[in-house]
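Still learning folds. Look over my entry:

…
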Amino acid sequence: MTIEPMANTPRAYARAAGVLYLLIIVCGIFSEALVRSSLIVAGDADATAAKVLASPGLFRAGFAADVVMLLSDVAIAIVFYILLKPVSAPLALTAAAFRLIQAALIGGSLLFYYSALILLAGGYANAFPPSQLHALALFMLDMHSHGYDVGLLFFGVSSLILGYLVVRSAYFPSLLGYGLMAAAVVYLTGSLARFLLPESLPLIMPLYIVPLVAELAFCLWLLIKGVAQPRPA
């Protein structure tokens, strides 16, 4: 059995982070863009209820994808801390803490998400009039969406610190770090706007292409390149 030299350990951590990041991106896009966007009709409780009841398997698949995403988020927070601790241990620990809080908040909001299915298909049809039951289910989905954005506020702070650490490190091109910081600004702006200026959300939504490109680029770099190895003296 061959033990990997310590000099190669950062590359192993980087590849692990790349796999976890890919899981996060794929599961996040699946649950948000393919599940929720196809089942939830904004402002129409009856249409949303009909879609959810017609595709309970798809609804549960969205829940499962979010669970995988959150488990990967917890793991990647630890991996990034180990990888970037040599740059600044306090900042790396802070970024990990904010990312773990994000995972906890989004995990809690999943209870609201699944409550919608429990209300619609869990034997509560006789307890409420259909219109009221559907409205309650849509309210639960709306609470999940708001809880998700509360989590993204903490994720935005974590990404801002992570981007700074990437720029400071000798492992990655600085451009990747600046991209993560730009993505963090979009997350913070969009999530704050949901609560403070909800009417501005349609103007902000196109900006989410920035996090998609920045995080995908960082993910691919981790998977393909890993980290830059220092040259021997």
Notes: Residues 107 and 193 are 22 Å apart (CA to CA).
